[in-house]
Design a protein that fits this description.
The complex is a heterodimer of chains A (188) and B (206).
Chain A lengths: L2 H12 L3 H23 L2 H17 L10 H22 L21 H20 L2 H12 L4 H8 L3 H21 L6
Helix pairs in contact in A: 1-2, 2-3, 2-4, 2-6, 3-4, 4-7, 5-8, 6-8, 7-8
Chain B lengths: L6 H8 L6 H10 L1 H19 L9 H46 L13 H16 L16 H10 L4 H9 L3 H7 L2 H16 L5
Helix pairs in contact in B: 1-3, 4-5, 5-8, 6-7
The chains are: A mainly alpha (188), B mainly alpha (206).
């Protein structure tokens, strides 16, 4: 993903080019949906939140000025939405990270049945582990492990110092390690 | 490196975010306990990497663009409701205030303007109504009117304030009041406003 071409698309969208905005959505949809999915655990919520993220981006398009990375801006919006959703779901006393139960959600094509069973077990273990993490720890783990952001980028997204990112990520990994080892994940 | 680096330090090292990369690598070659920690950290990434990925719905972009268009329509609608209603309410407010002032400054009983009010009083009321209508910056204009205050008392008060000597003079000379009010700067407007409030406080009204 090229940041220059992202900012170019932003400039075109700011000038009223809807196709340019659609191109931005197309480029970043996967990363934003995956982030929201790992934060909420719900496929439906993830797509809704990701949609809302892009709609908000569009609404504030006129105020946007080029930063170092366009994705940082986008993850910042997605992060706020996801944290609100997690907070709301906790208020409604629902599970924060529900299990993957729809076949549409799993890219299972070409996998053997035993592999799919293992994936399901592993997903359950990680789901429990992620659920046990506070949203503040979870977001950093997701941004690093699933979205591949470096510490500087994560610090900008969550508006904290790099040292905080470092500490929280280590703590999140420590907690998750316990869950995965319990499920025998690392031994396979 | 005599001491073992912490889990936190190894976590950063695995991500390539450690400042002490080379020394830690050398330590790792000689320390089985730390090697276990690094293996565990890398194992987490490996396991997370194996997790199923959510397929984004094929119509995702289309849905977003549909919502973007809806949002643009809503934005226009909300602009209209945000400004049109308050503007209509403000206009109604000034109309009612103006109407009340004119009604209260009218002579009671006979309807003869010469009775109970002077031409100066009505001129001043005119200024105030004009001022109220001109105050589009959201300042609330309120004026209680009663016929116990004479125009002379009011004008005497106006004349005591330097900024309004001109206004008092203009009233005497029947200058075009619209032009006069329009010529007041922000500070004079504010002083005028405070002057009238002072009159209201003393129950000195038109």
């Amino acid at each position: 993903m090229n940041d220059d071409s992202d900012w170019l698309a932003v400039a075109r969208a700011q000038a009223g080019d809807e196709a340019a905005f659609a191109e931005l959505v197309r480029r970043h949809q996967n990363r934003i949906v995956q982030f929201c999915y790992r934060m909420t655990g719900s496929a439906q919520d993830a797509e809704d939140l990701a949609q809302e993220c892009f709609v908000r981006l569009y609404r504030h398009l006129h105020r946007i000025t080029p930063q170092a990375k366009f994705s940082t801006l986008l993850f910042g919006i997605a992060r706020n939405l996801a944290l609100n959703a997690v907070r709301d779901s906790r208020r409604r006393l629902q599970t924060v990270v529900p299990a993957l139960d729809s076949t549409r959600e799993i890219q299972g094509a070409g996998k053997r049945p035993d592999e799919l069973v293992h994936l399901k077990e592993l997903d359950d273990a990680i789901r429990r582990g992620m659920e046990a993490l506070s949203p503040a720890h979870r977001e950093i783990l997701v941004l690093r492990e699933f979205n591949g952001l470096d510490y500087d980028a994560i610090a900008r997204v969550i508006r904290r110092r790099k040292g905080t990112v470092r500490s929280r990520l280590a703590r999140a990994r420590e907690q998750l390690r316990a869950c995965i080892e319990k499920a025998g994940g690392c031994e396979r | 490196m005599r001491r073992h680096p912490s889990w936190k330090a190894w976590s950063a090292w695995v991500d390539g975010e450690s400042a002490d990369t080379e020394r830690m690598r050398r330590h790792l070659e000689q320390c089985a306990a730390c090697a276990e920690q690094v293996k565990a950290i890398k194992g987490i990434s490996t396991e997370l990497g194996r997790l199923p990925v959510l397929d984004v719905h094929p119509a995702f972009v289309t849905r977003v663009m549909a919502r973007v268009k809806e949002s643009a329509v809503e934005k226009q609608r909300s602009w209209w409701s945000r400004f049109a209603v308050p503007m209509a309410m403000t206009a109604s407010f000034f109309f009612l205030v103006g109407f009340a002032i004119v009604w209260r400054t009218m002579p009671s009983g006979t309807g003869n303007p010469a009775e109970g009010t002077s031409s100066m009083t009505s001129r001043l009321a005119e200024v105030m109504v004009g001022y109220g209508e001109a105050a589009t910056d959201g300042e609330i204009w309120e004026l209680d009117v009663d016929d116990s205050t004479t125009a002379d008392e009011l004008l005497a008060g106006v004349a005591q304030t330097d900024s309004f000597a001109l206004l008092a003079k203009a009233l005497d000379e029947e200058t075009d009041l619209d032009t006069l009010v329009a010529s007041l700067d922000g500070q004079e407007m504010a002083a005028f406003n405070s002057l009238v409030r002072e009159y209201q406080g003393e129950n000195l009204t038109l």
